[in-house]
Amino acid sequence: MKRLLVVAALVALPLPAFAQTGAQTAAPPTAQMIDTGRTLFNDKSLSGGAQISCATCHPMNGHTDNKTYVGLEIVPDGDPRGRSTPTMWGAGTRQAEWSWAGNIASIETNIRGIIVNRMKGTEPSKETLAALAAYMKSLPNGPAPLLNNDGMPRDNAPADVKRGYDLFAGKAGCMTCHVPASYDKKGPEDVGSGGAFKVPSLRNVSKTGPYFHDGRFKSLDEAVTFMWDFYRKKNDSKDTLSDADKRDIVAFLRTL
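RESULT FIELD:
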């Protein structure tokens, strides 16, 4: 089954500037702005009572603490009220909206909501939001030595990875929602997990468990099985995936 491969465009940085023609363009952040954002990201004074910083839940330069939260309370993975902490690695290359609800188009708006509503901090300035956004958008994805820049496996990738990619792009239907090179897409989707949620990027996915919005699945194997069952039933597909096929898909996911 052939599928159109759409290469994800870089997300434009929302820092307004005007070219000589008068057309609005995106001004690249300066190194100083990114450094300021890094400092703010680790600054507990942004929260009420100066108890936590952005890095509390996103340690290792914007990654994830692999925990599930209701507000600031850690809850068991799979709690339907909970939200799993996503990674910020590769944030500047994503297509999807922000927040698990998938309804916030601007990273600044999402940062502001986290600071005010979750961290119980005071209203941040526009400069603070711009610096934090610049820092987060500067964060690269983790290393993926078996991937080309377009997100496809390199020629030297192991056979199981290549088979997994072919299944991912073909009969497993994964590229319906996870489009390379960022392996996400715009708009929330309802996959039978309790509502419509953001399609998360699968880059760095081997390091971002537990999986789904509420952290219900510990392993990629569980997540792949759930998604295949959903896709097959939704599309009334007669295709089958063997256990070996699913292992190959997981092998591919681990390269992202």
